[in-house]
Amino acid sequence: MPRLNIGGAETYVATVALGLKERGFNVIVASGGGILAKSIARQGIKHLFLPIRVNATLAAYLLEKMIKKYRIDIIHANSAAAGIVAIKVKQKINIPVVYTAHGVFGHNAKEMTLNDCDQIICVSEFVRQYAIKKGFLPEKLVTIYSGIDLHKFQPSSKNAQVIRNNIGIPEESFTIAIVSRIKNLRNKGHADIISVLEKYEGAKDWHLMVIGKGKGEWRLQYYVWKNNLRNRVHALGHIVNVQEVLDGADVVVLPSRFETFGLVLAEAMAMEKPVVTYAVGGTPEVVQERHTGFLVEKDNVDELYEKLSILASNKALCHVMGKQGRIWVQENFAKDVMMSNIIEVYMKYLR
């Protein structure tokens, strides 16, 4: 992985690495470092520094050295940049390469070399179909949904008021959470959800928990200050274990312009929170409309407000959708299901 800071792909890498260790695999993670690299190292996963984005040829040379030193049998690459480096190594020493496509790919000649991977795991059926249209071999593509560690994501109503007291949110206020890297205010929909709080009379008492950091953070702070929302928008920054604060929210929202899967939606449902998201990319595969949350037309802020209003006026519905959401995650997005499917892919080449 190029870097191991916070994000859906990064969380996936950490979850898979720990899952492999639990199942007796000797697993090593190679990346440019980051917060999650330190976290998994504390849990007994060996981490090696690999400058993937600095120079692909150099990274391939170093990766080959690591593989020989630690007698590695298979590479699992995450991100197109990591996959391209892995293919360079495969061409030299013929080691099996599995690549997980966290996003759409195949947009240039370099990305098309990923067709040389032994297997490509797609995080949603949307990604798989997109890859087929781009010319990737269907027999190499398999959809395996990202998994949630349900032992880690355990909802607790007892924590809700403690979290709200710590943040400064009144006990009965309808509270929304958005969990995402803040690259800017448009990509993940921060501007849309803040405009809901600003423009709609019915949302004048709602509160928003913003979890995440990024280059757009200062724009967010300015927008909040400019619109006099500082008492209702609570920027919590980067939180590694997001489940520790999600108990304080009534609903989780993700009005992204594009998502290949939307891992945070599954995490929110595991915490028994209804979710509201734009119906883009793979999100319709994650959310059961009107059962675990609502799918909204992209960029339709009026509809976004309308669906949130339904939940704000009906706490019982929030509770029911939340319960249904956790069951849905247990059946479709559990870590154990994902790990079994990934290991099945590995074993085709490890035999």
CATH homologous superfamily grouping of the largest domain: Glycogen Phosphorylase B
What's the number of helices?
15
Give the termini distance in whole angstroms.
Answer: 25 Å
Radius of gyration: 21 Å
Low-confidence stretches: none
Strand content: 5-15%
* Helical content class: 40-55%
Structural class: alpha/beta
Mean pLDDT metric: 95
Series of H and E elements: HEHEHEHEHEHEHEHEHEHEHEHEHHH
Q: What's the main sheet like?
A: 6 strands, parallel
- Beta strands, count: 12
What is CATH's topology name of the largest domain?
Rossmann fold
Q: Tell me the CATH architecture of the largest domain.
A: 3-Layer(aba) Sandwich
Name of the CATH class of the largest domain: Alpha Beta
* Form type: elongated
Q: How are the strands of the biggest sheet laid out side by side?
A: 9-8-7-10-11-12
Q: How many domains is the backbone divided into?
A: 2
Q: Could you characterize what this model shows?
A:
It is a single chain. By secondary structure, the chain is of the alpha/beta class. The chain has two domains: 8-147 and 334-350, 3-Layer(aba) Sandwich (Rossmann fold), CATH 3.40.50.2000; 157-332, 3-Layer(aba) Sandwich (Rossmann fold). Helices cover 45% and strands 15% of the residues. It contains 15 helices and twelve strands. The radius of gyration is 21 Å and the shape is elongated. The mean pLDDT is 95.
